[in-house]
């Protein structure tokens, strides 16, 4: 088996699993969830899985579990999710979001980056080995259907199926190339706490001429939010940063090697103002944030309506560094609002996910780096953790696996946005990397057995 053979196979089979994209598996709208899960079970069975089944015992959308036997005693667990974000606003799409469209070397579709393209790539790798002598290692898949609504049942499923999920290492969803087009091997995820804020100052909207004495809910909420964060991004909540774990020398060394390209990062999203930090690499890895996701109050339609809003609400999240706990952070924010005099501002806890980071000296990290350099040359970056979150902590906590993120998208893929896409070459290259990784990990297992 050679890299050339892998490439030829992937190029010939890039579209094999395009039907997966055509399912409108939108968890937020409860669309085509059972149909997508059934399709996945059928695909795993068609690839000669030892078992392929749906787990429904812990509630929520079904988890699809599959298991394949390989030539080595080593076992890799893959995590993916089959649900996607809604496609709106539809008017901004240049093609049908649920019809995979190849144009100018890119595949456009909702979920092709986050996260269906990742699973398609992994299925292609499985398909290759199953038709060319068998898998080098044992492989398991955990594919959930509620990631885009916060994975509310993930901890229960991992705990209940600990034995079935037993594995040596875990490859998480998602990954790919950064703004410098360097392939990333990411060793962890930030955590998140997502919450709502609301305040009511009157029983009904009031004529704006009475602003001389009447309180304004919109101003009240804006002032409450401003009391929690400084203009330069520092969170002004007492104790907010106290639990962040100090970085070890290895992690600091990897951060120092990160080549953050501020200009490209800004251009990718069209930033209109300068960055709010002088050290974005560090902040992306070990910085904690507070973000207003949206604010709503009063009249927001066309024309003029001069009122004092009776109520205001906002959605916010905090991205958490390893060591921070989402429920504790939420409690600290609640107490800070009281201390700041905003006892009337109500908070509601939506979701929380704990952060984690794999030991960067783990042999599996080093194997991924070696294999990546054989495929991508020296354009490889090992990253302590992504600035985004995900439900990986229960796997890390219960299974004790090193967990890494590698994948097939690039910095301009636009997950969650209209015209979400990946580049065909990235998909093919990332799939070859996965084939090489499975092969190399299998050889390590054979060497250990001797």
From TrEMBL:
GO process annotations (BP): lysine biosynthetic process via diaminopimelate; proteolysis
Swiss-Prot/TrEMBL keywords: Hydrolase, Metal-binding, Plasmid, Protease
Alphabetical list of SUPFAM superfamilies matching this protein: Zn-dependent exopeptidases
One Pfam match: M20_dimer
InterPro entries in alphabetical order: Cyt/Met_Dipeptidase (IPR051458), Peptidase_M20 (IPR002933), Peptidase_M20_dimer (IPR011650)
A molecular function GO annotation: peptidase activity
Peptidase M20 dimerisation domain boundaries: 188-337
NCBIfam families given in the database record: PRK06446.1 (NF005034)
Name recorded for this polypeptide: M20/M25/M40 family metallo-hydrolase
Organism: Nicoliella spurrieriana
